[in-house]
Amino acid sequence: MEAPGSTPGQTWKVSVQAEDFDIADEQARLTAGRHDVGAVVAFTGLVREIAEGRSDQVMELEHWPGVTERELEKIVVEAEARWPLSGVRVIHRHGPLSPGERIVLVLAASRHRQAAFEAAAFMMDYLKTRAPFWKKEAGPEGAQWVDTRDSDDTAAARWER
Amino acid sequence: MEAPGSTPGQTWKVSVQAEDFDIADEQARLTAGRHDVGAVVAFTGLVREIAEGRSDQVMELEHWPGVTERELEKIVVEAEARWPLSGVRVIHRHGPLSPGERIVLVLAASRHRQAAFEAAAFMMDYLKTRAPFWKKEAGPEGAQWVDTRDSDDTAAARWER
Amino acid sequence: MQVLYFAWMRERIGHATEQVDPGEAATARELIELLKPRSEGHALAFENLKSVRCAVDQEMGDLDMPIAGAREVAFFPPMTGG
Amino acid sequence: MQVLYFAWMRERIGHATEQVDPGEAATARELIELLKPRSEGHALAFENLKSVRCAVDQEMGDLDMPIAGAREVAFFPPMTGG
């Protein structure tokens, strides 16, 4: 199967980057000059500290350069096929991140709110189980790889058809 | 029944204002200094033009001062009772608004994404049918009040229990 | 008793508030029967009760809500915020 | 054939890539049987196959995916992004 996300012109919808992002800027870019967008849903994922007061922990995000972007683009293309979207944006950060920092942004814009809500939830659910990222939490006592949550598989499975 | 939202200290969660808002500022305020928030869902509602190219239309939003705020606070309290939320924010604008302008912001922050997604969708669905706002669209040929959408009642009904 | 109107109900009736003696009216629906004959605008505003919502002392309810002792009853079309 | 490892599989095995002759191995699962005896790290990495995902020529699949003619097979734990 050819990656549908690799269509020229698609790439700007997906970014994998070390830098932080500004949700207001991203949202403004998605709706700029448009008067047919009624709803934008923005999901932001943040690094949580593992236990209370353990903000000395650092999260290290490993990914598979090139493949990660393509998998994210596939998710975007799938969302656009399922819902009438006027705009989509996915940004995922990599590298070391501290508690409270932003990890991921998923934006879905549509005429009506239900499509925007569903598409954003769908992209997050798929991203969790399909985009090649692996989290490692490092603190003073050592580092460990984060386990998958079964609930993530369940969440992704509800979109299967 | 006493309005549960009128608890002192609650009021800052809800604003009804003529001014625009900044989604990044609002989100930053909600998560400032916290390391237990893993997910923030931000819903932004925008004014759509009625028909393509009809951006000369202006939307006028009438509301019931005092009661609107209290109804929005009730919705916030209800959301907080249903989901484990670390923060909630609702801003609804009134007055004249042009196509492309922001009307409403609903923010829900939680440890995990499902609670944030559900709470934000719930608040929007309830707000649509329970907060005393009325939209009037005015263009060169005159003004007319916006009709309710049946789908809004259906959307609100799915949360009844 | 103070009666409030919003949106197109206010426009049809021509004013936002009026002072009304509810007489024997026990519910919002019975109050409407008293209000309708007041003017053509009132009759038009209350033409289709499926499109009329109400609040008694700022508490949302349906048209069969009791109004006994209420200081304020508000009538308005279905809400269209968001 | 190039074999890639990520996250704790890479750490257990001690390197991110290695050159492997797949021999008769027709699927990723059969390839794993060839890889396991290479070192203690390999054996440990492939200890529990429920926790092993794979991609053949950068296409995600399950362990029974055919690897005939593939230039690259990647092994990694379940993803934990987002």
Task: Outline the structure in words.
- The complex is a heterotetramer, with two copies of chain A (161 residues) and two copies of chain C (82 residues).
- Chain A is 32% helix and 31% strand.
- Chain A contains four helices and eight strands; from the N terminus they run E-H-E-E-H-E-E-E-H-E-E-H.
- The longest helix of chain A is centred in the last third of the chain and has 18 residues, at 113-130.
- Residues 1-11 of chain A have low confidence and may be disordered.
- Chain C is 26% helix and 23% strand.
- Chain C has a five-stranded mixed beta sheet.
- Chain C is of the alpha+beta class.
- Chains A and B meet through helix 1, strand 2 and helix 3 of A and helix 1, strand 2 and helix 3 of B.
- Strand 2 (39-46) of chain A pairs antiparallel with strand 2 (39-46) of chain B.
N→C terminal distance of chain A: 18 Å
First-residue to last-residue Cα separation of chain C: 31 Å
How big is the Rg of chain C?
11 Å
Strand content of chain A: 25-35%
Task: Identify the strand order in the major beta sheet of chain C.
Answer: 2-1-5-3-4
Shape of chain C: globular
Number of strands of chain A: 8
Low-confidence stretches of chain C: none
- How much is the radius of gyration of chain A in Å? 16 Å
Hey, which two chains have the biggest interface?
A-B, 38 and 38 residues
Question: On the 0-100 scale, what is the average pLDDT of chain C?
Answer: 97
Q: Would you list the SSEs of chain C in sequence order as H and E? A: EHEHHEEE
Query: How many helices of chain C?
Result: 3
Question: Strand tally of chain C, please?
Answer: 5
Largest sheet entry of chain A: 4 strands, mixed
SSE pattern of chain A, N- to C-terminal? EHEEHEEEHEEH
Question: Shape of chain A, please?
Answer: globular
- The helicity of chain C comes to 25-40%
Can you summarize the main beta sheet of chain C?
A: 5 strands, mixed
Binned, the helix content of chain A reads 25-40%
Query: What strand line-up does the widest sheet of chain A have?
Result: 1-4-6-2
